[in-house]
Amino acid sequence: MRLLETLAWEVATFRHLPDEAVTQKPVVWLFAEYERVAEARWRGTTEQIAATQTGV
Question: In which band, very low, low, confident or very high, does the pLDDT at 14 lie, cut at 50, 70 and 90?
């Protein structure tokens, strides 16, 4: 877990990510960002499946 925290901190500080990434614990922000992206991908996939099934 220490390695992950170190990696997250380096990403947050050197990539100039949003303020949330630096003010929160980087690991918390990293996992929140991962969840956001995963949910967006899942939503996009389900919308695509629904569009093909309805013929839109």
Answer: low
Whether pTM exceeds 0.90? no
The total of structural domains in the chain comes to: 1
Percent of the chain with pLDDT over 90: 0
- Full residue range of the structural domain in which residue 25 is found: 2-54
What is the sign of the dihedral through the CA atoms of 25, 33, 9 and 6?
Answer: positive
